[in-house]
Amino acid sequence: MTDTITLRRPDDWHVHLRDGDMLGRVAGATALQFARTIVMPNLAPPVTSVSAARAYRDRIMAALPRDTRFTPLMTAYLTDDSDPQEIARGAAEGVFTAAKLYPANATTNSAHGVTSIAAIRNVLEAMEAIGLPLLVHGEVTDADIDIFDREAVFIDRVLAPLLRDMPGLRIVFEHVTTADAVAFVESADADVAATITPHHLHINRNAMLVGGIRPHAYCLPVAKREAHRQALRKAATGTSDRFFLGTDSAPHERAAKESACGCAGIFNAPFAIESYAQVFDDEGALDRLEAFASLNGPAFYRLPPNEERITLKRGETIVPDLVDGIVPFHAGETLGWSLA
Ligand code: DOR
Ligand code: ZN
């Protein structure tokens, strides 16, 4: 039995670091575990310009210790009014590592999101030309589509046609939650990848609804039925290099979660790598954790893997009920790995 694993320091290819007071409370947890992260731009107002992304990056660095070796990789929030030249300039100046497509009203702070692919066609053409990755929140928002079907319908109605139309577009299908999404990514060509969160590997929809309604298990896309969770675990721990780590850690104040209309989002940053390690251990795939956490993401983003190493040891990690006032994923549970 393996009791110690050493891997290249991982990166988090999808995280919400928030802003203001919340940024100060959560950024440290991510910077402690990860070397680089793709930072989501869904602030209020959203990060749509190069100058806003630069200023946000500065606020993130200011929230961390001066000697941190952490690098936030910034993203542009696409709207119907996004200017292809602004996106291309941000990429050329090394500010934008990617651009994020939120379908309008799909999730937290997405009211300014994109209403149709046609509205951003010129932006997507510019991105295709320069190879800037498009990060996709893959859910339709049509009122007549059941929330558990929104990802699968998005593939048929939006993603598949988009790729047929613009086969050179580089796409990350973010936080996939279904067997359908796994199959889509596996059948697509090499420029289509996906992130998988720790929570979608650990919980199915029962976690949200059995024995009472559990707001801390609520996120978007919502966790699906068990067969989908099993497909995600197979994809994450399998041999495809198209799946990589993206926590989608999305902190909200406790009162905003424990509410008659609770916010979507799971705060998993404090014990993210331990949570993933548990999954890989349970699947007998600890030897593939490094590929998922530290190699596949950089390869897709055309960045070098990190040289620094981290060590995980078998041993109890007790997850507290609160981390700086926020309820973390796995609150009150014990994980089987600890970060040395
Ligand atoms: O659960 C989620 N929370 N899903 C998202 O897509 C956004 C995120 C947030 O920003 O709270
Ligand atoms: Zn997210």
UniProtKB/TrEMBL annotation:
Q: Which residues carry this modification: N6-carboxylysine?
A: 100
Tell me its EC number(s), please: 3.5.2.3
Q: In the record, what terms sit under GO molecular function?
A: dihydroorotase activity; zinc ion binding
Record's GO cellular component terms = cytosol
Q: Which PROSITE patterns match?
A: DIHYDROOROTASE_1, DIHYDROOROTASE_2
BP term (GO), one: 'de novo' pyrimidine nucleobase biosynthetic process
Q: Which reaction does it catalyse?
A: (S)-dihydroorotate + H2O = N-carbamoyl-L-aspartate + H(+)
Q: Which pathway, metabolic or otherwise, does it act in? A: Pyrimidine metabolism; UMP biosynthesis via de novo pathway; (S)-dihydroorotate from bicarbonate: step 3/3
The residues that hold Zn(2+) 1 are 14, 16, 100, 248
Q: How is the cofactor bound?
A: Binds 2 Zn(2+) ions per subunit.
Q: Does the keyword Metal-binding apply?
A: yes
- Residues forming the Amidohydrolase-related domain are 12-307
Alphabetical keyword list: Hydrolase, Metal-binding, Pyrimidine biosynthesis, Zinc
Q: Which residues bind Zn(2+) 2?
A: 100, 137, 175
PANTHER family, per the entry:
DIHYDROOROTASE
Record protein name field:
Dihydroorotase
